[in-house]
Amino acid sequence: MDQQQETFRQIAAERPRLMAFGARLAGQEGVDDLVQEALLRAMEGWASFTPGTNLRAWLKRILLNCHLNRCSKEAVRRRYAERQDLGEAGGLWVGSGSSSFSRGAQESAVMAAQASRAAEALPGP
Predict the structure, then answer these.
(1) Is residue 57 part of a domain?
(2) Alpha-carbon span 50 to 60, nearest angstrom
(3) Which uninterrupted H or E stretch holds 75?
């Protein structure tokens, strides 16, 4: 067996444990993509792994970093969406759950923006 096949075999053997760990981090819905991303990164970065050290810990760290990166990106997207939605009350999209910005939060943002516009339309003192 050549080195690349052995590398793949070692990493693939850890997949069930990574799936369990990933499910605890991301939930069942996002675990497949998360683990796939982590395994890809592990394969790409295999040269940085020190033989004789704990492969499982190394892979779990990669998985955790992938999860943290996703959380960070999602937080940025959510903040951007909130700013856009609050700034453009009429253009707020209330979709079918594909947005991480929950429907209840979207409706609250719309109502707040409408109240703000109504208050601005009131005659001054």
Answers:
(1) yes
(2) 15
(3) helix 55-87
pLDDT digits (tens, 9 = 90+) for 16-71: 999 999 999 988 888 999 999 999 999 899 889 988 899 999 999 999 999 999 99
Give the residue carrying structure tokens 């700013």. Answer: 83
Residue 125 falls inside a structural domain: yes
Tokens 């409408």 locate to 114
Please say whether the beta carbons of 101 and 85 come within 8 A. Answer: yes
SS3 content of the chain, % helix, strand, coil (to 5): 80, 0, 20
Domain that holds residue 69: 3-74
Q: Is residue 35 part of a domain?
A: yes
Q: Quote the tokens at residue 107.
A: 């409706």
